């Protein structure tokens, strides 16, 4: 377990300045339980971090940050499937590349998503027609107090759109230490989303899908190494049929994604753009020009700039469309996570 300087700027992709009381890097489960017990002894909060690509620090964090760097990829197989057991601190995109290099297909639609493998189940990462839940076999979860490890099957994880049990019952006092993935050897391309529909299912290769996904993402999403951001700032809102019909009567070209339960998912980026907010700035924070769902740190933004902008965007979209956006990004205050909707209200 190593201790660092206490700046969190390089540990959040928004690149906002914030300090922690202490930052440690955990390379094994024992480091995580030690950090938990140290925090308990000091009456401090403990925050687990992967690569900080889905968090916004609202100010300094008055506790210990444990950066998850538990490594290792083990591959086994059955006649029909590849089974990957992956340490939670592995980088997600590097795992996608590693799988492709080893002729293991199935992860290519999820290329270029920042962050750690262990964070992927928390919001059930998804992009270009696939969510983690369709590939997840199990998640290994460490009880930080007892040191006991629980293995949750994919069903137990209660995955939903940007949702899982790790945001609720297992949010405090537990760390994800490994993820099991199950990938069919009989590969079926998923070509339902965006430019992927132009590819030919009969001839397409996993590498071509990977390349197409990377190209689409690079054309829209800012690279956090150059421009601070945390991806989509808000979730796409899910509304009932009555609301969607009222909106469609006024905006017939509005994108809609019908859900299995009869409700309809709207494109938050479209709503933000149609509210006239592309490029809108408060302080150093701005709405991204290429993708209005992404808020960026354009010019040394403070977290207060980002919060003010996020509140303005939410209020303007509500005023125009009567739809209230909810942040996807997790808001971290001095004592730990706070409710992001309340923070913007
Ligand atoms: P962090 O931000 O470090 O942590 C996220 C939350 O999980 C925090 O609350 C943290 O306390 C908790 N946590 C972290 N590690 C653990 C652990 N081991 N055990 C328990 N709790 C833990 N997401 C998508 O779903 N689809 C996308 O297409 C997508 N595109 C993105 C594009 C960009 C440019 C960016 C910046 C982000 C994007 N995201 C996307 C969001 C982000 O990549 C994912 O949410 C990712 O899984 C976060 O990983 P992380 O390691 O950075 O998590
Ligand atoms: N749109 C606009 N203007 C914009 C942005 C989008 O009109 O500024 C329209 C697009 O033209 C399209 C629709 O909105 O018709 C959806 O846009 P896009 O395909 O870019 O996807 P998204 O809904 O904005 C979601 C995820 C992304 C994921 C992409 C690709 C959420 C909150 N976001 O974005 O995930 O990469 O789909 O599957 O579900 C993330 O979670 O951080 C993230 C980047």
From TrEMBL:
Cofactors that this protein relies on: FAD
Enzyme active site: 162, 232, 328
UniProt domain FAD-binding PCMH-type: residue ranges: 16-186
Catalytic activities: UDP-N-acetyl-alpha-D-muramate + NADP(+) = UDP-N-acetyl-3-O-(1-carboxyvinyl)-alpha-D-glucosamine + NADPH + H(+)
GO BP annotations, alphabetical order: cell division; cell wall organization; peptidoglycan biosynthetic process; regulation of cell shape
InterPro entries reported in the protein's UniProt record: FAD-bd_PCMH, FAD-bd_PCMH-like_sf, FAD-bd_PCMH_sub1, FAD-bd_PCMH_sub2, MurB, MurB_C, MurB_C_sf, Oxid_FAD_bind_N
Function summary: Cell wall formation.
Name recorded for this polypeptide: UDP-N-acetylenolpyruvoylglucosamine reductase
Organism of provenance: Rouxiella sp. WC2420
Gene from which this protein is expressed: murB
